[in-house]
Amino acid sequence: MKLGAFSVSLNVQDINASKSFYEKLGFQSLGGDISQNWLIMKNGDTIIGLFQGMFEKNILTFNPGWNSNAENLESFTDIRELQKQLKQKGIKMLTEADETTEGPAHFTIEDPDGNQILLDQHR
User: Which residues fall within 8 angstroms of residue 113, CB to CB, at 6 or more apart?
Assistant: First the structure.
């Protein structure tokens, strides 16, 4: 099962302080909008998202259809198919993608320890 590009979405208290901290670790902005309190940052193949006031917890994030540079892949498994496969394996959905649609969608699951996992397809 290919889930797409992986990142960790961090719940931060002060996005400017977090941006400055991660820049000192060698991360550079890849995308996002700091005026909307979110940034995507990259260091090598490592991607983190900084989100102020959007999530309660840190979240593991997968983006079907993207590589680690947020570039579109020619071929990928659609998020609705991934959702269907996970449901068949007994994974409980916290939120679900509408299986009657196409294009961008997302769903959320949780591991046995309560860590949230977001699968977020942008195209």
Answer: none
